[in-house]
Amino acid sequence: MAALASQPLVLAGEGWGDYGLVDSGHGRKLERYGPYRFIRPEAQALWSPRLTDWRAHGEFVPGADEDGGGRWLFGRDMADGALPQAVPRDGWPLRWPQTGGDAVRFTANCTPFRHLGFFPDMAPVWGWMGELLAGRNDASTLNLFGYTGVGTLALSHFGPVTHVDASKKSVAQARANAALSGVESRPVRWMIDDAAKFTAREVRRGKRYDGIILDPPKFGRGPEGEVWRLEEHLPGLVANCRQLLDADSRFLFLTVYAVRMSSLALAGLLAELFADLPGTVEHGELAVREDADGVDGARRLLPTAIFARWRNG
Questions:
Q1: Smallest Cα–Cα separation from 143: which of 210, 231, 93?
Q2: CB–CB of 72/59 below 8 Å?
Q3: How many whole angstroms separate alpha carbon 58 and alpha carbon 197?
Q4: Which of 2, 38, 7 is nearest to 264 (CA)?
Q5: Domains of the chain, first to last
Q6: Which among 99, 208, 187, 88 has a CA at the least distance from the CA of 137?
Q7: pLDDT tens for residues 268-304?
Q8: What is the mean pLDDT of residues 115-126?
Q9: Is the pTM of this model over 0.85?
Q10: Whole-number pLDDT of residue 197
Q11: pLDDT > 90: what percent of the chain?
């Protein structure tokens, strides 16, 4: 029976050569993506910035609505001043130095949805999955809402991966990232599909996986107009994911962004569904640690999402 850990965890992502959280505060964050620096809104940065120099190559200014609207500013339109180097319109290559495997390479770019082509706070999650699959080359894993495929490419080091996303553009970018990493020949199924419908079909087919990662949005639409609402549809999706795992499987990792929900609620859902399997259900927050020390010698943590996970081993 999977045991529920009562104390929350914090999975803190550290900067690396091609990414870092430079500073944060007053509802914004300053990050480096390779040779470029960007300012983006961050509601959870309630404190004051530590640095006075917030010049960047680009800044995302949110719109008046709550649906992620807004626009990128470059050059003299930026309030804090712009750095001179122009940001490539077609993106630029970055790498994540996967421990125990080949580096994952991917393209970063300024998307209309304020993101830059990957989620750096997921780096400790990718590392954790790699630890559970260490020594394997036959592990079958599933990446739901796989976006541009950085997590998929990390998992592909350990065996075949099924990558599912409703966005044709995101799947195309994921495949391009696989080519950029030199791993386009690895056994990855690239699926443009509604995650909930795909998972239900896999259950009917009697499929199983060694691990599942899912990163559902608060609201979304499938390729045929299917409507996704997190609070309404998440329990059914996770229940189907549970049917794709067994006592020999290693993990399920669920992340949730921008919702009024506790990680303990996610853990309660997993604890109920995984009660008949061995292992442990844990929960907590994802965060990114700032690059620089403060005056007290500590590096602040910026929270980004909540998570719940089941691990077996």
A1: 210
A2: yes
A3: 38
A4: 7
A5: 3-12+89-311 (3.40.50.150)
A6: 187
A7: 999 999 999 999 999 999 999 999 876 666 899 999 9
A8: 95
A9: yes
A10: 95
A11: 80
pLDDT at 66 over 60: no
Residue 296 pLDDT:
67
What's the per-residue H, E or C state across the chain? CCEECCCCEEEEECCECCEEEEEEECCEEEEEECCEEEEEECCCCCCCCCCCCCCECEEEEECCCCCCCEEEECHHHCCCCECCCCCCCCCEEEEECCCCCCCEEEEECCCCCCCCCCCHHHHHHHHHHHHHCCCCCCCCEEEECCCCCHHHHHHHHHCCEEEEECCHHHHHHHHHHHHHCCCCCCCEEEEECCHHHHHHHHHHCCCCCCEEEECCCCEEECCCCCEEEHHHHHHHHHHHHHHCCCCCCCEEEEEECCCCCCHHHHHHHHHHHCCCCCCEEEEEEEEEEECCCCCCCCCCEEEEEEEEEEECC
Residue from 90, 119, 121, 123 nearest 107 by CA: 90
Residue type at 177 in one-letter notation:
N
Residue among 61, 182, 162, 165 at smallest CA distance from 114: 61
Report residue 9's pLDDT band, with 50, 70 and 90 as the boundaries.
very high
Q: Find the helix packing angle between 263-273 and 230-243, rounded to 10°.
A: 40
Confidence of residue 67 (pLDDT cuts 50, 70, 90): low
pLDDT at residue 63, as a whole number: 82
pLDDT at 222 over 90: no
In the numeric block, which tokens belong to residue 264?
Answer: 């303990």
Over its C-alpha atoms, the chain yields an Rg (Å, rounded) of 19
